[in-house]
Design goal:
about 450 residues; Pdz3 Domain; 2-enoyl-CoA Hydratase, Chain A, domain 1; 2 domains; 6-stranded antiparallel β-sheet; 12 helices; globular; disordered N terminus
C-alpha cells in the first residue's frame, strides 16, 4: 500500500512538473506579452497618464508596433524593447559587429570617426581619419536615398556577416579590406593625452559611451579610474572632454565621472534629482556628489555634437552649476529623461526574455534645469573634421577647445567652418543601439 501511494504521488509530481514546464515556454511575440508591456507601462512609464485608457493587443503584429503606438509622441523618441541579454551586454561593452563609426565632413566625404580596439575593424588596424570611398564595391554616393540621407546596407550586428570597404588613407594611398562581424569587448576611452599650452597642462579625454566594467560592485568603470589617475598624476590644469559621438549609457558611470571632476569644496552637494510618475514617488531620489581623487578644476570644456546624448547630457547638466562650462562643436541630442529595465518587475516579460526599457524618470540638476529636449546649444559652433585622428590639432573642434583654454573664446575664422551634416550616424539607430551607436 505504501509503495502504491508513492507511485501515485510520483506520477502526480511528474505530470505537474510537465505542465509547469509547458506553461513557461517562451512566446515573446504574443498577446500575453503585449498585455504585460501595457501593464508595466501603466505602472512605471513617466508619461503614464498619456497612455490610452484601453488597448486591444490583438490589433498589433509585434511588440515593437504596439509600444510605438502607445508612447507619448513627440517627446518620447527613446523607449524601446530588446532582450535581457542584449541589454546587459551593451552596458558592459559586449558588442557584435565591425566595431566602428563614421561621419561626413563638410564636403560629404565619408570618414571613420572611431574604431574600437578589440573589434574586427580595430584588429585589422583601421583608424579614425581613413576616408571610405566605396562599400561592397559601390561608391558612397550610390547609397544616398530619396530623402537625402544614406542607407549603407551593412546588415544586422550579427557575427559572420561580412562587408568590404575601400579606403583612402591619410598618406594618399588606397587599401581594400573585407571585414567579418564578430563579438568583441568595446573600450570607452578612445584617446587621452596631455597637451602643453601657454604654460598649462591640458588634459584631452575622448570618451565613447558610459559602460561599466563587468563584475564590479558597486557598478563602475575601471577605464574611468585609470584615466582619472592618469590626469591626476600629470597634474593637469584644464580638461577638455570630447563627447561628440557619445550616445549615453550607464548613469552609475556618469556619477562616477562627476565625482572625479567635482571640486572638494562641492562634495556632498546635490548632483541631480530624478522624478518618477505619481505612482512611484517613493522611488524618486536625489544624488549628491562624493569627491573622488584629487583633480582640482574650475573650468570644463566639452566637445559636443548631435551624437552627444543621454548620460553625456546628464554629466554636462549636473556639473554646469559648479563649473565654468563651455561647449564647442554642435548642439547636443536632447534627452533629459532616463530609463531602467522593467523585466525584473514583471514575470511575463522576464520569462519570455523581453526587456522593456521605457522612459521612467526625468532628470534635473541642482538648479532645477530639466527641460532640454532640444539639446544644449554649443557656445561655439564649429564643424567636425573626422579626417584627422584623435589629438591632431588640425581637428577644428579640438583646435577651438584649445583656443578657449588660451583665450576664453573662439574667433570668427573657426566659426565659419560650422556645418550641419545631412546624415548623422546616431539618427540611423533606435533603441538600445542608439545609446551605443556603432556598426
Amino acid at each position: 500500500m505504501t509503495n502504491s501511494k508513492w507511485i501515485v504521488r510520483s506520477l502526480m509530481f511528474f505530470f505537474f512538473s510537465c505542465d509547469q514546464t509547458e506553461d513557461i515556454i517562451p512566446e515573446p511575440q504574443s498577446d500575453q506579452v503585449r498585455g504585460a508591456i501595457f501593464e508595466s507601462m501603466q505602472e512605471w512609464y513617466y508619461w503614464n497618464t498619456e497612455l490610452p485608457a484601453t488597448v486591444n493587443t490583438a490589433d498589433y503584429s509585434s511588440n515593437e508596433d504596439f509600444l510605438n503606438a502607445i508612447i507619448n509622441k513627440p517627446l518620447d523618441r527613446f523607449s524601446y524593447l530588446t532582450t535581457q541579454e542584449a541589454f546587459n551586454n551593451a552596458f558592459v561593452g559586449r558588442n557584435a559587429g565591425h566595431g566602428f563609426g563614421f561621419a561626413f565632413d563638410a564636403s560629404e566625404r565619408l570618414f571613420l570617426t572611431f574604431v574600437y580596439e578589440e573589434s574586427p575593424a580595430g584588429k585589422d588596424g583601421w583608424k579614425r581619419g581613413w576616408e571610405i570611398t566605396a562599400i561592397n564595391g559601390k561608391p558612397i554616393a550610390q547609397y544616398r536615398n530619396s530623402t537625402g540621407g544614406y542607407d549603407f546596407q551593412l546588415g544586422a550586428p550579427d557575427p559572420g556577416i561580412s562587408n568590404s570597404f575601400t579606403f583612402k588613407l591619410p598618406d594618399g594611398t588606397t587599401t581594400s579590406r573585407t571585414n567579418v562581424k564578430a563579438e568583441y569587448q568595446s573600450n570607452s576611452v578612445l584617446h587621452q593625452e596631455i597637451i602643453s599650452l601657454a604654460g598649462k597642462k591640458v588634459g584631452y579625454w575622448v570618451y565613447q559611451s558610459f559602460k561599466a566594467t563587468a563584475g564590479q560592485s558597486p557598478t563602475k568603470s575601471l577605464e574611468v579610474d585609470e584615466s582619472m589617475k592618469y590626469f591626476e598624476e600629470a597634474g593637469i590644469d584644464e580638461l577638455i572632454i570630447d563627447l561628440r559621438y557619445n550616445g549615453g549609457g550607464s548613469v552609475a558611470v556618469a556619477e562616477q565621472i562627476n565625482n572625479y571632476l567635482i571640486q572638494a569644496s562641492n562634495s556632498n552637494k546635490l548632483m541631480y534629482t530624478n522624478k518618477l510618475n505619481s505612482l512611484k514617488t517613493e522611488n524618486q531620489k536625489s544624488v549628491n556628489f562624493r569627491k573622488a581623487g584629487n583633480l582640482k578644476l574650475d573650468k570644463l570644456i566639452f566637445i559636443t555634437a548631435r551624437g552627444t546624448a543621454s548620460a553625456s547630457e546628464l554629466v554636462i547638466n549636473s556639473l554646469s552649476p559648479y563649473f565654468d562650462v563651455t561647449l564647442v562643436g554642435d548642439n547636443t541630442f536632447g534627452k533629459p529623461v532616463g530609463s531602467f529595465p522593467l523585466s525584473p518587475y514583471n514575470n511575463t516579460l522576464k520569462n519570455n526574455n523581453v526587456e522593456l526599457v521605457p522612459i521612467t524618470f526625468a532628470i534635473a540638476n541642482s538648479e532645477g534645469k530639466a527641460d532640454y529636449f532640444d539639446g544644449f546649444p554649443a557656445d561655439f559652433a564649429v564643424g567636425d573634421t573626422p579626417q584627422f585622428n584623435w589629438g591632431n590639432q588640425n581637428d577644428l573642434r579640438l583646435a577651438a577647445a584649445l583656443i578657449v583654454v588660451e583665450n576664453g573664446s573662439v574667433g570668427g575664422r573657426l566659426l565659419t567652418t560650422y556645418y550641419r551634416p545631412k546624415w548623422e550616424m546616431i539618427d540611423q539607430f533606435s533603441g538600445l543601439q542608439q545609446e551605443f551607436p556603432a556598426y
